[in-house]
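pasting for the record
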Amino acid sequence: MPPITIYLILIFSLFIPPHPTTADQSFISSLITQPGLDFVKNLLISKAIPTLTAARISAIQKTVRIPLIGKVHIVLSDITINRVNVGLSNIKPDVTGVTIFGSDVTCDLSMKWHYSYGTWLGPVSISDSGTARVKVMGMETGTKLGLHNQEGSLNLYVMECNCHMRDISIDLNGGASWLYQGIVDAFEEPIISAVTKEIIKKLKAGVIKLGSVMKSLPKLVEVDDIASLNVTFVDDPFLSDTSLGFRINGLFVEPKKDKYLCANKLQPPVSCSDPKKMLGIALDEAVFNSAFSLYYNAVFMRWVVDKAPEQNLLNTAGWRFIVPQLYRKYPNDDMNLEISLSSPPIIRVSSKQDIDAIIYADLIIDVLQGDDTIPVACISLVMTGVGSVQITGNNLTGHLKLDDFTMSLKWSKIGTLHMFLIQPVMWTIIETVFLPYINARVGTGFPLPIFRGINLQNAEILFQDSRITICSDFSYKEPFDPSRTLVYSS
C-alpha cells in the first residue's frame, strides 16, 4: 500500500508541487471547497488507519501492592494496536490553518501480561502469564496544520496535535481474580498515556514525512519534449472557513527553464456557480498563450501538406484558371503546400462562453519537379476563429471554427496573383486541411495538473473575462503503480 504521505498531500493540493520563479506571477488558481475537503478527509482516514494498526507500544512495568499477597511485579508487553475505528470526523480550514478532527474513536489493543512475587517460603517465587485485550472508547484527536509558501514550495508544519481518551476496558485471559483489579488500578492511566503518545507520534511523523515528500517532488512537470508546466506556488495558500485555495505560476516553459516572462494580472478568487462542487481550477488566457508561444519558438508549428481531400489542389492543373501563369510554367506538376505560423497565435477568453483566436500564418506554394522542390509564391494569412473547450477525462480539450480570414501576397516568382480569385481556394484549404490538422491536436488537449488516480466528474466550464474556470467533483482510484502517483493524469 502506498505510504500515507501520498494521501496526506491530497488534503492540501491537487496540484503537482512547485518550482521557483518570480514571486508575483500566477496564472492558475485552484480552490478545494468544503465538499472536496470532506472527500479527501474520508480518503485520508481510510488510508491512514492501516498505518496506526500494528503499531507497537513499549512495555509497561510496575510493582504494585496486592492485599494478602504483598508486592507483585507486573509487566505488560507486546502491546499492539490491532484496530482503529473513527466514528465521526471533520476537516475545518480557517484563516490560520487546517484542522482535522476525529471523535467517537475506538481502538482495540492486544498485549501479554506477566507477574511474579515472592513468598514467605524464602527464595520460592510465584509467577504467571497470559494475554489480554484492551478496548479504548470515546477517543478524540485533533491536528492543526500550518501552511505557507517558502521560496515557491508549500511548507507544511504541525501547529497543534492532541489526543484524549474517555475510558478503557481490559479483558484478561487467565490469571487470578485479584490480577484484574490490580492491573486496572495500576495500569489504566499508563495504558492511556502510552496509547495517546503513540498516536500523537504517528500523526506528527506523517506530517513530517509529508513535508519531506513535498520538498523532493519534481519542480517542473514535462508535458513533452517541447514544453513543461511551471507549477510554482505563488503567495501563501488562501484559506476561509469553507475552502482552501492555491495560486501557481501555471505557464508553459521550456524544459529545465524556470520562468516565462509575461505580464501578470492579479487573479481574483476562484468562483463556481454551484457551491457543492468539490474543486475549482481557474486558468488565465496567458496559460494558453504561453503554450502557443513556446511551440512557435520551437519551430513546431510548421507542416507540409502533400495530401488533401481535394487532391486536385495539389497539382498545377487545379490552378489553371486561378493562376494561369503557374500552370503555363509548370504544367501538370504536383505541388506541396507549406503552412507555418508567422507569429504565435493570440488567445482571448471572453465572457460569451467562447474563446477568440487570431492566427497568423504563411502559406508557401511549392512545385515538385523530380527531386526538386521549387517555392513559387507565399501568401500571408490572418485567420480569426472561435474556439470551444470541454473536459475529456482529465484533459482540457478544444475545437476551433473559422470565422473569417484576410490574405495578402508576400512574395511571388510567377508574377502577380489576383487575391479575389485565390480566396475561395484558400477558404477550402483552410477548412479541409488547416483546421482539421489544428483540431486533431487541440482535440487531444493537455492534462490538467492533478494527481494520478484523481478523476474529474460532472465537470462544468465557466467563462469569465480573460480566464476559464473548471468546476468539478472528483473521485479517487488507487493507481496501478503507486510510485507514479505524483504524475499528470490524462
